[in-house]
Amino acid sequence: MIFEKSGVLMTLDPGLGKTATTLTAIRDLLDSFQVTKVLVIAPLLVAEETWPAEIDTWEHTQVLSYELITGPAERREARAKLDAEIHIINRECIPWLVDFWGDDWPYDMLVVDESSCFRNPAKRTKPTKKAIEAWMTDPVNVPKPKPNVTRFGALCKVRKYFDKVVLLTGTPAPNGLMDLWSQLYLIDMGERLGSKFHSFRSRWFESDFKGYKWLPRPGALGQITERIADVTLSMRADDWLSLPERVDNTIHVHLTPSMMKKYKHFERTLIYADHDIEAINNGVLTQKMLQLASGGIYDEEGNAHEIHDLKLRALDLLIEEAAGKPVLVAYNYQFDLERLRRRYKGAEVLGEEENQVKRWNKSQIPVLLAHPASAAWGLNLQDGGHIAVWYSLPWSLEHYIQFNARLLRSGQKSTSVFIHHLIAVGTVDERVMEVLPDKAATQDAVVEATLYRPE
Q1: Exposed site from 134, 153, 352, 449, fewest CB < 10 Å?
Q2: Three-state secondary-structure class, residue 246
Q3: Tens of pLDDT along 272-298?
Q4: Are residues 371 and 276 both part of a single domain?
């Protein structure tokens, strides 16, 4: 399919070898002179760890030359100038790369690993409030701030230079069908779903009376998937691999009556009296209730206040039951991380030490702490352990699915992978656990409609 189409969206479950498959295609396209220089965009850890490791693993890809365009700007600039068949860069640096090359853009093939990270259709964002205030305070010496180009917007500027575009993801529509528009735009520049996001949204979705929530119109799912089916290839791991059993476990944490009374009062009034904290709207309230369920809360100045250690006690028991086997722990808030580090002296934080993936896979790290956004994509952690714990939960289905797939994937030595969820009873934790399956239903429908079915 990569050879037949100028653009393709490959929605493959983790463990199906999308990196190795894409590298094989790159090798063949380079050998046949269909492309001359490839740009690979990936999350930082995936760019620095997974892609180089895959290139060096396979005999037929070891001949490919590559450069990592990551790190400080000076190093990126030096490496970008080096001649190599593949340049690998983290997604945060895309606007920089576009500005660096300007009209001398050298790449004719684009690979975006975890393309759902580009689902935001905005091409520009407003200047920050701080930048505007600085300009208004001193308009003579401070230049008027301009809108910032987003990563998606930067890619749109150079899309015309690519003869081949390959988008890779395991979660094509984590928040619903609207996530598909920007990804398809990178493939065909609007041919299938339209060149304007607002037109796409108006055609296939309708909003509530406030305009905040958009729901698909009747028949939207079938119409959209029919339009994208010819450039979309979906594969599910269950159809092709023998995966270990997944064991989901919910561990209920009970707040004391006093804590629950304060929690309910905060939910009703938006005021948490103990630390004089006020939630200015329901969105802020929801986040702060998640914080309370986790064990702390941030005030308006960003200071964290510890409320309880009930989840820490529950995690103590899980780590004790693991009996020395490595445990992967997902956290969502900085105060969670600080408390976890104080509690578990031998724990490491993903991304802070060298060779962590290798050492984890040799079972040399007893507790690995990871934010879902940093561990959600592309890292092969299945050799090091089979126990994951959600200390605090995300709203993001993408982060949830992808994080679990770091252990639940092909090559896992254990016959079972345990996914533990620490849930504070009677709190918004329970609502998150209800919402995630609802989000998954839409994405599953997209995958089913574009599923690869060999004859």
Answers
A1: 352
A2: strand
A3: 888 888 888 888 899 999 999 999 999
A4: yes
